Amino acid sequence: MDVNIEEEGHHLKNNSPYDMDDAAWNAMQQRIKLHVLTTVQKASIPATKPFNYWKISTVAASLALIITLGALFFLHKQPPETTHEVASNREIHIIKSSGNPEKQLDNTIHNLNEAELNLQHQISENEISEQNEYFED
Amino acid sequence: MRERLSSKVKRQKNKFSILTLQAFRPHNNRAQKNMAATGIDDQIVQSCVGGNMDRGFDLLMDTYGKRLYAHIRRLVVGEHDAEDILQETMINVIRSIKDFKQESKLYTWLYTIATRECLKFYKQKKLSLKGFDDGSQWLVNTLYAENSMKAETILLKFHAAILTLPEKQKLVFNMRYFDELSYEAISKITQVSVSSLKTNYHYAFEKIKKQLSNGC
């Protein structure tokens, strides 16, 4: 069967296979209303989240890690004078713990044999002569 | 004598062209109603934003519900699908009505949301319809399945022809022919230029005309 869209225009425009009677429409409207208002209300209430211990422990562990890394970084960045001071203090401490340095030198000289004493004497004399030459120049 | 005759013929020609134009031009009654509905628009927005959601929803559905449903139904065909999409449209509308700037009409805005939901449905269906070569064939099958005894054959053929149109043509034809929206309003809804819409409407009209005159 042929249909002329221009002749049947009014009929085609004003009738539809999708028409719905009022009762069905009202029922659908109520269903939609209930669902829409419930959904919108639910969305407007902030959701309460359960208290998670693992999240807190993760935060604490990461904080501790940050602090440790920070401390290491600052130690590494310390100026060399401070390191030197620490070293010299340690030497003083060692010297102090082993007694008077003059006494230590005496003891060492006393323990040397003849050959060693001669050698030591020669080295000292050479050093003194070299120093004198330097000053004369 | 000749001049008289030629002027008579010209007048008749003009009369004929005006008549044919009127036959194709959508009736302006509904369009005028749209224009006058701005007072209701304010009431709807104020009720929804002011916390009286219940009243706002009722006003919205009473004013635009049926037309929106018809628009959705013409695009997705299935009764349950259309209800789901109308529901989703209404949720989006109620949620974002506070952001609605009254630069455009509420009806245009509602149409935009509803059309977007329908296009989303098309995408989902195209993904799930592996057995069909074309999504429109599935829509036509749904149309015949849901209206096996109820609707007239002419109406079914007409709507089946609309469903076989490409997406853009289908959208513009439905909004222009049934809802009598202006090309400017359709352009706002679909984000397609007016000239392109006019061409698409023309092609759609010709295709349907041809399909119906061939007896489908």
Question: What's the structural blueprint in terms of helices and strands?
Answer:
The complex is a heterodimer of chains A (about 140) and B (about 220).
Chain A: H1 9-14, H2 22-44, H3 53-76, H4 80-97, H5 101-111, H6 114-136
Chain B: H1 2-24, H2 28-36, H3 38-49, H4 53-76, H5 79-96, H6 106-128, H7 135-146, H8 153-163, H9 167-178, H10 183-190, H11 194-213
What would you note in describing this structure?
- The complex is a heterodimer of chains A (137) and B (216).
- Chain A contains 6 helices and no strands.
- Chain A is mostly helical and 137 residues long.
- The longest helix of chain A has 24 residues, at 53-76.
- The N and C termini of chain A lie far apart (132 Å).
- The model of chain A has no long low-confidence stretch (mean pLDDT 79).
- Chain B is mostly helical and 216 residues long.
- Chain B has 11 helices and no strands.
- Chain B has helices at 2-24, 28-36, 38-49, 53-76, 79-96, 106-128, 135-146, 153-163, 167-178, 183-190, 194-213.
- In chain B, α3 packs across α4 (53-76), α4 packs across α5 and α6 (106-128) crosses α10 (183-190).
- The radius of gyration of chain B is 20 Å and the shape is globular.
- Chain B starts with a helix and ends with a helix.
- The model of chain B is unreliable at 12-37 (pLDDT under 50).
- The interface between A and B is large, with 28 and 43 residues.
